[in-house]
Amino acid sequence: MPVRSKTETLREEGTLNPRRAAVVDPKFREGEFFDPHDVVQVKYEMLRRARVEEIPVVQAAAEFGFSRPTFYQAQSSFEEAGIAGLVPVKRGPRGPHKLRPEVMEFLASRVLSGQPVRARALSTALRHELGVDLHPRTIERAVATAKKTR
What we know:
Radius of gyration: 24 Å
Structural class: mainly alpha
Mean pLDDT: 89
Number of strands: 0
Largest sheet: none
Helix content: 40-55%
Order of helices and strands: HHHHHHH
Low-confidence stretches: none
């Protein structure tokens, strides 16, 4: 198994700092411990400097490549959840947002017990009858989940 670099690992975990070049704090420019690629470490150090070294928020944010609003958002997240609050939250919908109750009722009425799920045909029928575009794999997962919860 090939060894992944730290940058690859940070990218996969969603914690790679997209603004690493904007980090001008000297600790992140010399040595290896402080890594401008690690957005969690950069945000933590920004918060620490502002609090412990009592530098102005504007200065702390600028030295670490962030805006004032981002500083305050990081501060709030840190106070609420600790270091885990500094991990970026994945964007986008949380869960299958198209699987509304009427869609699930439609699927339940078309799936026969003991018969294979015809996901492609169901996808086409959903598009024509309800105007909902669902991938066949999403339909298969939804039907399987519904069977488990019964």
